Amino acid sequence: MRKGFLLSCFVACSKYYVVKPLYFTLEQATEICDDFEDLIDTEFTYRSAPPIKLLIDHVAIAPFDKADKEVFVNSYTTSGDPVGALNNYAGDKYDVLILGQNANDPNDIIILDIRQYIEENNVAYNFPTED
Asked: How far apart are CA 116 and CA 88, in angstroms?
């Protein structure tokens, strides 16, 4: 895998838009993953220059904080297991990531924030709120 591409995509894809909330509880992140599980094993074109066709492998819960998210991403790229990559996280702020691969080069792992996916694909979605 070309880690330079992974890291640049991770940085570029970790922008947060004016969509609230900024982070999720574990219960909220689980609900979001359940809501988007139909994306698994599908493909879509990521709007980059040039556009990249993405094959979606997982919609996964990840740590929200940048440093913890980087540890998660490194563990995921090594193991391919998002659940195992989250095992050592002890925090309480979560995010949801779409994890996939470049359809033209399966060695390139692509990681998109759920907010970015929703915005770029004009998905109408109401994030779960705390009860």
From this structure: 26
